[in-house]
Amino acid sequence: MIIVSGVVPIRPEMRETAVQAALEMARATAAEQGCLVYRFYADLEDPCLWRIYEEWETAEALAAHFETPHMALFRQQLPALVAGAGEIWRYEVSAAGRI
Fold first, then answer.
1. CATH number of the domain that residue 77 is part of
2. How much is the average pLDDT of 20-44?
C-alpha cells in the first residue's frame, strides 16, 4: 500500500474556492481504480492549513492518478489557491494493523 500525506497552506481569500476544487477532486479520485482513501482536512488551529491524506493499493494506481484529466485540472487551479510551498510525502507500507 502507498500512503501520501502532507500539508498545504491555502490563501485565506481563496478558501471557499479551494474547498469546492478539493471536493470535486476528492469525488473524482475516489472513483479511481486502486484508490482506497483520498481526503483533505483543515487543521484545527489554522483552517487555511490543509492536510492531505491518501491511500493507494499500488504504486501503479498512484501513478495512473497523476495522469487523469481531473488531476490535470486540479494542477491548473492550484497556483491561485495555495499560499506557499507545501510538503507532501509518499510512504510505502508493507504491513498495517490496528493499535
1. 3.30.70.100
2. 98
